[in-house]
Each structure stands twice: as C-alpha cells, then as structure tokens.
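Appendix B, record 7
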Amino acid sequence: MKPRVLWIEDSARFELNNLTGPIYFYGNYDFQQVEDITTAVNFLLARPFDVLIVDIRLPPGTDPYWRDLYQNVTADGGGEKLGIKFLYWLLSQDGNFKQRPPDWVNPDLIGVFTVENYEEIHEKLDALGIRVFKHKSAGLSDTTLLDLIEEILVKKPGSRKKQ
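Structure tokens (predicted):
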C-alpha cells in the first residue's frame, strides 16, 4: 500500500503546482492536497495519513470556529498564524478547541513548508516536536515537495526507508 500524504497549502493549485508534478509522475504516494483548515480537518478525521505537510499561513475555510479564530489571530496584529494554531490543535497541545484531533497524529509525520523563516517559528515547532521544516522561497526545485515527503518518511520511527 502506498504511503498516504496530505499537503495543506492554500497556494498549491496555482502558484506551487509544479511541485506536485514529480509526485504524480513517480506515483509512489497516495497524494491529496487541500487548501484550508476546515477541509484539512475533515480529511484528517476521515482517515489516517502517513505524512502531513503543513503551511503556516492558511485560510480557515467555512467552519465558524476556525473563521472566528482566524479573525482573532489576524486582529492580533502579528500574532500566531492560523497554521500554528492548527498544529497545536492537531497535536493536542491546546484544550480550547471544540473538536478532538485524530489520535493517530504525532509530530514525526508532520513537516512544515512555509514562507516564514525558521528563526521566527522554531521555538513553537520544537515545543511541538516537529523536526522537519522547509522554507518556501523563489527558485525551489520541482522535487522539493517530493524530497520533503521522503525526509519525513525517513525520520519516522520504525521507518524502513534508508537514510
């Protein structure tokens, strides 16, 4: 069975679509992409994934809870991005969320792929146990997303992939 991968990225369809080409070409993964947190939550609650790639700047989608949280985060004037709040929810680090996250999620299967600099968010990622980070910048190789997926799979405990 192919490893299941979910990429949560609002710019995936248009600005970053070149990054999915190698994934589809090689066909080694059951790959899904979603563009907002509401859709991501629905996917995550429906079935488990082996790899999650998460952006930090994400729109809330249609769920009123995430929409309200998004408005509070943006009104905060530079507070935590909604993607960080989503990661706290996903890893059960904040009990203020209305829905329980899926119990199969752990930090070893998450990678962060964002325009934020590592220095800006590394303390939060470290506290959550997330060890895979890639800065999104101009001129990325078309295999960047594929490489990120493989890095997560290699670092997962019990992984059979060679390092």
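Remarks on this record: The chain is about 35% helix and 15% strand. Residues 43 and 55 are 16 Å apart (CA to CA).
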